[in-house]
Amino acid sequence: MKPESEKMFYCFFKSPIGVIKLVSSNDSIIEVSFIDTNKISINNTINTIDRYILKLEMTPILKNAVKQLNQWFRKERVNFELPLRLYGTFFQKLVWESLKFLQFGSLISYKEFAAFIGMSKSYRAVSHAISQNPILILNPCHRVVSINTELSGFSGGLHRKQQLLNHEGHLYLECYKNSKNQHNYKPKI
């Protein structure tokens, strides 16, 4: 959980695939999430924020995060150099911290990722933890897919997961818009 007395800051960033909300402490990014681009939704998001703890302000760390995300979307960057702070259970943090080892353009199944972090028998729990990742894109949970390469479990929406994977070179996933079985290309995961 976040400390009650710690001041948090947030901003919105219009990315090529939707509006992103970034939240930081003074020294670390703590959330990257997609929000609906509808003004009413944005206003509802702002109205639900505890204004005593969270403040709309473009701090140096948020400016740097927006700069690096812009570079990433323009394919001028493949890795992020930002401090991340993860709030969750010990198990969630273990899973989330392991996501940073997934390189740009890589793809792995939930089951293989669980084995990679030494938890092959707990792959469903690992999958659930991945679906709760609070720092999208920077902590690349979008690179984890079902064993049959189907898209699943992305809090930003499956269409955005597909767009992120397409951005990283997995264009064959376009076929999932209409039918899951219209292709015969299976990547080696």
Based on the model shown, name its key terms.
EC 2.1.1.63, globular, two-stranded parallel ribbon, 6 helices, Arc Repressor Mutant, subunit A, disordered C terminus, methylated-DNA-[protein]-cysteine S-methyltransferase activity, alpha/beta, 189 residues, MethylG_MeTrfase_N, transferase, single chain, methyltransferase
For this structure, the CATH topology of the largest domain is Arc Repressor Mutant, subunit A
* Largest pleated sheet: 4 strands, mixed
The stretches of 5 or more residues where confidence is low (pLDDT under 50) are 37-41, 173-189
Strand content: 15-25%
**Widest β-sheet, arrangement of strands:** 3-2-1-4
| Record field, number of beta strands | 6
State the fourth-level CATH superfamily of the largest domain. Answer: Winged helix-like DNA-binding domain superfamily/Winged helix DNA-binding domain
The CATH top-level class label of the largest domain: Mainly Alpha
The overall pLDDT average reads 81
Provide an overview of this structure:
The protein has 189 residues and is of the alpha/beta class. It has 2 domains: 8-73; 90-177, Arc Repressor Mutant, subunit A, CATH 1.10.10. The chain has helices at residues 39-47, 60-73, 90-98, 110-116, 123-131, 158-167; strands at residues 8-15, 18-24, 29-35, 54-56, 108-109, 144-145. The strands form 2 sheets. Strands 3-2-1-4 form a 4-stranded mixed beta sheet, sandwiched between helices. The longest helix has 14 residues, at 60-73. The protein is globular, with a radius of gyration of 17 Å. The termini are far apart. Mean pLDDT is 81; it is low at 37-41 and 173-189.
